[in-house]
Please model this.
Amino acid sequence: MTVTGFFQVCHSWLDQESKNCKSIVTMKYKEDTTNRYNDKNIVIYSGFNPFIGIGNNLGGWSFAVDMTKPKYETTEVENFPMSKVYQHLDMVINELKIPGMKIDNCLFTHGSDIKNEKWILSDKFAKPNQCTDDFIVKAYMEKNDPKVRFYKWIQVYDWGNELVVSYLIRFTKQNKKLFVEVNTFLLTPLIESYRSVDSLIYTKAKGNFSLFLLSILSIPIAIGQLLNSPFLVIKNTDNLKVSSLYCMVKERRRAAPPPPQTSPARGPAPLTPSYHAFLRGYI
Model:
């Protein structure tokens, strides 16, 4: 077996081994998606879409509730903080026990509105902070700030963490109305062209050991080919010489003058004058 054939066999074996391993891109994608906002609770955006990167917009809905009208006529309306509304929402959502669900508190603000916010932009020549203390987040939970908006971010991971459904819910008080806003997004899997790295050889401990073993086994074959290479060169050189000699002889035969032509009726062809002069000297 030649070196090329040996490495073809090895490559096919490693390719089969890599197919049995998990997808590298899928594993990394799941890890990044799961841990993307674990330590971040500030999202800074530009333009008019604060939810960039969360996924495709599936639409949303909103409504307003009159806080001056009690549920029952015999009761009175009590003033309540917004944190109590969000706590009730967390309790109701957690009772559903949806697999792969995650609930976060997050602040969204426009990049042009953070120039004077030192807790976000401590240095104008540095990048903005993406994480702040929980008491600041809870403070904006009670505010109806047009620059920094609080959202309850509910995420549901499904299909091996490749599909992520996000619900961003916001409660705000506007005069005597309770405004409820819900936005829904779907983060889809990566396209196939970004998964080309999956075809690469798996490079964990098992893959590294396999490559090391194949390298050791290929050393004797490589040495044998190296020692045999001079004989191959000589053999090819001899073949080249024979071919060159054959071509040279063939060209000389083509360039030689044709032999004298004879005819049964006329006899041999007449001699040229130079041959007559040559023969007279001997006659």
The radius of gyration is 43 Å. The longest strand covers residues 163-174. Helices lie at 3-20, 24-34, 82-96, 134-142, 205-255, 273-280. Strands lie at 42-45, 56-66, 101-110, 148-158, 163-174, 177-187.
